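User: Hi! I'm working on a homework problem where we have to compare a predicted structure to a textbook description. Could you give me the structure for the chain below?
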Amino acid sequence: MATDELSSKLSRRLQIEEGSEDPVAVDAPGQHTGSEEKANTANANSELGAKLLRREELNEGIGEHSLPSMKVFNPYTEFKEFSRKQIKDMETLFKTYDAGKDNYIDLMELKLMMEKLGAPQTHIGLKNMIKEVDEDLDNKLSFREFLLIFRKAAAGELAEDSGLCALARLSEIDVSTEGVKGAKTFFEAKVKAINESNRFESEIRQEQEAKKKQAEEQKQRRAAFKELQSAFK
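Assistant: Happy to help. Predicted structure tokens:
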């Protein structure tokens, strides 16, 4: 019986190879059949065709290879105008209101943040706040976009009555590493830093003028001494 079955299978394979008979697909248990199998085959063929076409275009110089982005965001190198202490304080503030712990502040989290800071915003106001710094258009704030708020504030690019300006003004950032003492807010710190810088420059100019005056007096004394010496010769 087994020999007859084997002989039948071999005979059928020979007929298929000689083209005298078409092969018939046999359904295996657990496999899709009929229209499902045809659809899967069509999808596979379509995907394979698209890949082959893309490969051919690249070989002919049409299009560009798309490589995954390897850029890593480093706040300390990109936001050099801020000290490490400032950035860490901003990060702490960001994480405080990132209730979902997904490294983003969404609309509802921003709403809570502005309420806690004492500057509640309308729904439209909150959307406008995000829109102003939302570079990737995902309708939420990443940490980089959060830092952009303070960059824009420091550069004077925010309207004084805007929600972002209120956020930057009311966020207490410790800037003691810059030598500014007693600064409660970001803007107070910047004003004091400018005043300290101006005072320092003024002191340097005064020292330079004093040294110049002292050198001139020494020159006059030497000249007077030489005149006195020549008088005794």
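For your comparison, note the following. The chain has a mean pLDDT of 76. Residues 177-207 form one domain. Good luck with the assignment!
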